[in-house]
Structures are given as C-alpha cells and as structure tokens.
C-alpha cells in the first residue's frame, strides 16, 4: 500500500488555509500538490475540524467492527440452520 505524504490533520490545515482566502494555485505550489488533489481533499474533508475527523475515523472503525460481527453471526446462524435441517431429515427417515 502506498504511503500517504500528508496526514489528515495536515490536509485539514491546507484546506483551512484555502478557506481563509489563499488562492488554490498558491496553496498547491506551497504544499507541492496538484489542484485536482486539493479539490479531492476539499470534497472529502471540506469544512471538517481535526476533532470531527477523529470522531469520523472512530465511527468508521466501529462500523467496520459491527459489520464483521454481523457477518460472523450470520454465518453461525446459517451453519446451525443447516445442521438442524440435516438432523431433522435423519430423524424423520429413521421413524419411517
């Protein structure tokens, strides 16, 4: 995986400088990024503070953990259902 050159807090700092009125071309030249990169950052992180970004990352991590938990429980449920169906089929065939 490619290493990021800028931390998210640094990205927020760049965007805040842009919101303060610094021209985009000057910002991009100063931080050595392309204008398209600046606009991608603005679309993703625009208007956020560092505290909000940390909260967003925490929520994303919790969401990921909950999705994994649901997937595990769903697989367990399907497995138990399959075992129960097989057991019922075996028990019914023995009665006949």
Number of domains: 2
* Average pLDDT reading: 89
Radius of gyration: 26 Å
Global geometry: rod-shaped
Count the E strands: 0
Largest sheet: none
- Alpha-beta classification: mainly alpha
Q: Detail the poorly predicted runs.
A: none
Question: Termini separation (Å)?
Answer: 60 Å
Element-level helix/strand string:
HHHH
Fold blueprint:
Blueprint: H1 8-19, H2 24-31, H3 35-45, H4 50-95
Task: Describe, in plain words, how this protein is organized in 3D.
By secondary structure, this protein is mostly helical. The protein has two domains: 1-48; 61-96. It has helices at 8-19, 24-31, 35-45, 50-95. α1 crosses α3. The mean pLDDT is 89.
Summarize, please:
The protein is mainly α. It has 4 helices and no strands.
Features:
mainly alpha
């Amino acid at each position: 995986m490619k290493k990021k050159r800028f931390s998210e807090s640094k990205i927020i700092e760049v965007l805040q400088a842009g919101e303060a009125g610094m021209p985009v071309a000057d910002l991009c030249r100063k931080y050595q990024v392309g204008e398209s990169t600046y606009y991608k950052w603005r679309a993703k992180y625009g208007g956020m503070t560092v505290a909000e970004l940390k909260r967003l990352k925490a929520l994303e991590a919790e969401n990921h953990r909950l999705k994994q938990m649901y997937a595990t429980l769903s697989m367990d449920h399907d497995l138990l259902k399959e075992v129960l169906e097989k057991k019922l089929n075996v028990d019914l065939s023995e009665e006949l």
